Amino acid sequence: NNFYFLEMNTRLQVEHPVTELITGMDIIAWQIRIANGERLPAQEHIQRNGHALEARLYAETPENNFLPATGKIEKMGKCQAPGIRIDTGVQTGDEITPRFDPMIAKVCSFGMDRELARTRLIQALDDVFITGVATNGSFMQWLLQKAEFIQGHYHTGSIAEWMDDYLASLELNEDEML
To answer: Between the CA of residue 50 and those of 24, 27, 64, 147, 155, what are the distances in Å?
Structure first.
């Protein structure tokens, strides 16, 4: 007669676009098929091709400890370039409120190598601009161009370690504008 709560998060909602881009398999559809009794294909039948990266575009302010931002999306640019996938549930005119997760979109890129996926993602983040609410888009573009990231030298604490560099880059940009 006891009630228990078990949270299970397999991360499917976060990484599935990357998996789908490199395997060509719609794993959300497979989830439904499995629920209907179908079996997954054997591992040797699942092919991986290329590289994919995902950037989660949030209404947040990286320069203010990544605090969420609120406001109306006055304009939201679209990116329809090759090798780009954008998953979003918002559009121009929508309101980002404090009552929900501030994620705006998953911006994903694909390329036959990591460098092509990386440069495509930088461009896609530039194309998917948002006005009316602060986002982490510029921060992600900066991060994707950081030498350590390009070389593959990063870890789970890298953002905290590199934050002073990012803040200094903002000050340099302000000085250039003056």
So the answer is: 11, 18, 36, 22, 22
